[in-house]
From TrEMBL:
Organism per entry: Aedes albopictus (Asian tiger mosquito)
Bias kind Polar residues: ranges: 625-639
Key words, A-Z: Decarboxylase, Lyase, Pyridoxal phosphate
Family: Belongs to the group II decarboxylase family.
Protein name from the UniProt record: Tyrosine decarboxylase
Length: 639
């Protein structure tokens, strides 16, 4: 491709990009593909011979676009905004055309100096103290563009670790650095970004994750208490990462309160991560959220989130650049130059050596929109978020779960986490809008963020209509499922009753013999005794209160009564088919003589149970007559 064809193809590409952004609404927000879809569409090896440009662009539309999640889509409401604008695209295009690698001032003076100037511009607009600005007289600080907020957190933790080791080495010169490293402890809130935990892993230091308050804000008393406990355990606090605008709910740690408390720990590095919210501080009415920044040792924000600048562009400022660079300096001869002592070399400010000309796109954006234009853009997004919050609050099925200060609203259906998971899953599967979840105060919530550069009120209303439609469908289905569950539970309960009835039926004559229930054997309300021929006293009593005495069936009582030592207890007998209990007690004669005879079903003085399907069962003596005056048979049974 020569310059002539590049002009033609470049024009076509600009046209393609414009058409793509203008027709995004016609595309599904998220792709409907499975992992590995693309490897089945592309060859396993690179082509040996050149292919026509037209064929490449055909494959972009037919193979690449079906697998793209469209972050610039007006229906995309997940995460935070992904900055994008035509001035930024053109700035990146120019940077790519220049193609310099600005690792030092000598490698590309304009690349280095523009970055320093633009970072001072943005720092002033945000409202950072003068000690963060490189070109302020007497300042030791300055700003640098990093790849992402994760890299900002990492390099500041590395600098804090180097500072702590140096300080401890002065106190304990004969202790190995590895041992000192094992004592270092960093701190952050549970709401902090996961990059803090990853940075601690890379730095080989301990990290204590602290519980925030009910507003998801880290407070000074929680932090100080943890630090004092760790000091008592022989650990050494060295780094605290706070957040202004957490990822989960856009909550704000109280950095003013924390900064004041950390004055008792002068060797602890205080970092402030404001990746999303920091951009909004260019608005005068939002600068109050920055209160306490004077205490910070470093601060970062991402213009590639909310300042219309394409990724990658994460800005970091430090109070003292020497403390940062001393932790990262590697200075081989081939990288040295004659102005090393008087110029900034950004290769010492981060992990990578090679650096793109990223300040160009930020410079283009700041000049094209001006601070006023960027303020209006941010205020518009906040207004859209406030509109969505009002829609949620009007519907009593929903609740708002965060304090909406900027462009993020956390909401949920009133009810269980499970129903909210169903709601979000159904919405995202439809491809109409896209959102992501978060956990706020241990509850599952749905995050809604206005992200598109040209988002409008109609986009918010459309999103709310989609949400309420799916919510109504899910709630209706939940109610139907509840009814089904109740019916199933009743069926199960009925089956259990039937099984229980069967068990009782085979063991209790009152169940399977309706005549017994119908006869309704009268209760004996007063205790009476009936002497037998051998002096055994049979006591019949009505049960007074449920569970007032234990009971046993009469065959077991027979075994007890026929033991060699006589009855052990004054044990009442219950006949399960009678509504009475019978108490067996030894007679005075048997007690005096030590006799052991006792009633027996077949003995001379036994008690024989007579059952009748027509009448209530009665106790009859073997000697004598039955209630129907029928003589007993010789074998001891009743006919």
């Amino acid at each position: 491709m020569d310059s002539r064809e590049f002009r033609r193809r470049g024009t076509e590409m600009v046209e393609y990009i414009c058409n793509y952004l203008e027709t995004l609404e016609q595309r599904r927000v998220t792709p409907s593909v499975e992992p590995g879809y693309l490897r089945h569409l592309l060859p396993g090896e690179a082509p040996e011979d050149p292919e026509p440009w037209e064929k490449i662009m055909e494959d972009v539309e037919s193979k690449i676009m079906p697998g793209v999640t469209h972050w610039q889509h007006p229906r995309f409401h997940a995460y935070f905004p992904s900055g994008n604008s035509f001035p930024s695209i053109l700035g990146d295009m120019l940077s790519d055309g220049i193609g310099c690698i600005g690792f030092s001032w000598a490698a590309s003076p304009a690349c280095t100096e523009l970055e320093t100037i633009v970072l001072d511009w943005l720092g002033k607009a945000i409202g950072l103290p003068d000690h963060f600005l490189a070109l302020k007289p007497g300042s030791k600080g300055g700003g640098v563009i990093q790849t992402s907020a994760s890299e900002c957190v990492l390099v500041t933790m590395l600098a804090a670790r180097a500072q702590a080791i140096k300080y401890l080495k002065q106190q304990h010169p004969f202790v190995e650095e590895g041992h000192l490293l094992s004592k270092l402890m960093a701190y952050c809130s549970k709401e902090a970004h996961s990059c803090v935990e990853k940075a601690a892993m890379i730095c080989f230091v301990k990290l204590r994750i602290l519980e925030p308050d009910e507003n998801c804000s880290l407070r000074a008393d929680t932090l100080v208490k943890a630090m004092e406990e760790d000091e008592q355990q022989g650990l050494i606090p060295f780094f605290v990462s706070t957040t202004l605008g957490t990822t989960g709910s856009c909550a704000f740690d109280d950095i003013n309160e924390i900064g004041e408390a950390l004055q008792r720990f002068p060797s602890v590095w205080l970092h402030v991560d404001a990746a999303y919210a920091g951009n909004s501080f260019i608005c005068p009415e939002l600068k109050y959220l920055l209160k306490g920044i004077d205490y910070a040792d470093s601060f970062n924000t991402n213009p590639n989130k909310w300042l219309l600048t394409n990724f990658d562009c994460s800005t970091l400022w430090v109070r003292d650049r020497i403390r940062l660079t001393s932790a990262l300096v590697v200075d081989p001869l081939y990288l040295k130059h004659g102005y090393s002592d008087s110029a900034i070399d950004y290769r010492h400010w981060g992990v990578p050596l090679s650096r793109r000309f990223r300040s160009l796109k930020l410079w283009f954006v700041l000049r094209s929109y001006g601070i006023t234009g960027l303020q209006n853009y941010i205020r518009h997004h906040i207004d859209l978020a406030k509109r969505f919050e009002r829609l949620v609050l009007k519907d009593n099925r929903f609740e708002v779960c965060n304090d909406v200060k900027l462009g993020l609203v956390c909401f949920r259906l009133k009810g269980s986490d499970r129903i909210n998971e169903k709601l979000l899953s159904s919405i995202n599967a439809s491809g109409k809008i896209h959102m992501v979840p978060a956990s706020v105060n241990e509850r599952y919530v749905i995050r809604f963020c206005a992200t598109a550069q040209n988002a409008m009120v109609e986009d918010i209303d459309f999103a709310w209509d989609v949400i309420t439609d799916f919510a109504a469908e899910i709630l209706e289905k939940e109610q139907a499922d509840e009814v089904t569950e109740i019916v199933d539970r009743r069926k199960t309960h009925t089956l259990a009753q039937k099984r229980s009835f069967f068990v009782r039926m085979v063991s209790d004559p009152k169940i399977y013999n309706p005549a017994i229930n119908k006869a309704q054997t009268p209760r004996i309300s007063t205790e009476g005794t009936s002497p037998s021929t051998d002096g055994t006293v049979v006591t019949v009593q009505s049960p007074k209160t449920p569970g007032s005495a234990s009971w046993i069936s009469w065959p077991l009582a027979f075994l007890f009564a026929n033991s060699d030592d006589g009855p052990k207890n004054d044990m009442p007998l219950r006949f399960r088919h009678l509504d009475t209990m019978v108490r067996l007690s030894a007679s005075r004669r048997n007690s005096a003589t030590g006799g052991g005879s006792s009633p027996s079903p077949e003995g001379e003085n036994g008690i024989v149970l007579a059952k009748s399907p027509k009448r209530s069962p009665l106790m009859v003596r073997r000697r004598g007559t039955s209630p129907s005056n029928q003589p007993s048979t010789g074998n001891g049974s009743t006919k």
